[in-house]
Amino acid sequence: xxxxxxxxxxxxxxxxxxxxxxxxxxxxxxxxxxxxxxxxxxxxxxxxxxxxxxxxxxxxxxxxxxxxxxxxxxxxxxxxxxxxxxxxxxxxxxxxxxxxxxxxxxxxxxxxxxxxxxxxxxxxxxxxxxxxxxxxxxxxxxxxxxxxxxxxxxxxxxxxxxxxxxxxxxxxxxxxxxxxxxxxxxxxxxxxxxxxxxxxxxxxxxxxxxxxxxxxxxxxxxxxxxxxxxxxxxxxxxxxxxxxxxxxxxxxxxxxxxxxxxxxxxxxxxxxxxxxxxxxxxxxxxxxxxxxxxxxxxxxxxxxxxxxxxxxxxxxxxxxxxxxxxxxxxxxxxxxxxxxxxxxxxxxxxxxxxxxxxxxxxxxxxxxxxxxxxxxxxxxxxxxxxxxxxxxxxxxxxxxxxxxxxxxxxxxxxxxxxxxxxxxxxxxxxxxxxxxxxxxxxxxxxxxxxxxxxxxxxxxxxxxxxxxxxxxxxxxxxxxxxxxxxxxxxxxxxxxxxxxxxxxxxxxxxxxxxxxxxxxxxxxxxxxxxxxxxxx
Length: 536
Ligand code: BGC
Hints:
Helix content is 76%, strand content 0%. α1 packs across α8 (170-195), α6 packs antiparallel against α9 (203-223) and α8 runs antiparallel to α19. By secondary structure, the protein is mainly α. The chain has a single domain (34-531), classed as MFS general substrate transporter like domains (Growth Hormone, Chain: A, Up-down Bundle), CATH 1.20.1250. Mean pLDDT is 84; it is low at 1-15. Beta-D-glucopyranose binds next to α8, α15, α19 and α20.
């Protein structure tokens, strides 16, 4: 733990309690930054609705349009199976994956705020390309630009939130990112619901262009946001960092202890010259490395994006009309937001493991139910029969329960847990791994889902349910509880874990702690003497 702070109860082993209120400054800044998640969410929610609009299909994917509208002999499971159509959805995530490799350097060198502002600018240009598209390449270029925007914002926004948030509210502030992702998805679902009914067949342009309005709001509000004190210190602007810290924590509070610790932490992390090499090759970081890969991998293998991207297509596949399909995605989007609110308030109370386990069991049950319901009606042949209203309602209800199970478990925890188990010296490179694994599997699922639906039929839901069972067992055995443990002390959990403790070298931990303490005292002494000189 970094020295110089006040402890909650005077015990040096307990969590520090830096003074800091939820000030107007910090609240406004965090709400504005968290809204960066809207861009990600809007993209997730918009493409499914757009790709189910006949005018859009007819213009850019005439083969799919013919199969869907005219050729009723095609197996119901296969009528949307088109590689170029899925490329429209998935290209964005491939671009985000590429962006995540260099986003961490940009965020470090130029600051979190500039990274958020540039993500909004790139995103805005991408939205223009999409809204004005007359050829397929314009659509794809637009999607790629949007992807760069998403890659930058998923790297910088969670870091910005964690650094700005007052110490004790880090969990809540961090979850605002996921909350704004879900709001973005819901806004997209609602926009599609309205634009799909436009008579001129141009509704899809408004849907895709809507991303530009979101980018404008985010970009303009980010310009007025303060930079985080951590980033200012990292780039050598100590005076400004101190002033900003004072402003965001409360003008009347003594922020010296937190400031000293930020300076010490920044110096310690600057001594780590090769964060990537460290993370990938050092044995003691093995638990963090494995979880940073597996958590985003499992998050995507829940199959959530099958519902988020393709809900309208999926509902159409099982026989809903266009409007009913789009309306049903508004319903699932709405429950996604509500269930995320549950997570925001429960995560620090019930803990991460309880939510992971409950959510996993719930998702498993309802995925099997969806498979059974669809299989029972369509069998393997996928021949269209009339779907009674009550039956369709049961399918939608099961999907809603599945989405809710995800929204209070793997949704927010898929971002929160990796960010809190990574120690400062490898936090930025670790976050890049989380973002890139997440985007890689988001891309793969988006790209192959329609193909898999055509090949596996209703068994596809059983396939995802099997993964949910595996990841729930994995959490049970391998994910330690990190609730209410300050970030700097999370490394203790590995020492106590039945499996991970074999990667912890106890002797090395003690030596490291002793070295750390000496360094901190040196930094404090240096800062004190600087202060004395200034006041003399
Ligand atoms: C995931 C997205 C998903 C969204 C659904 C996020 O945490 O990363 O892939 O679409 O949650 O709410």
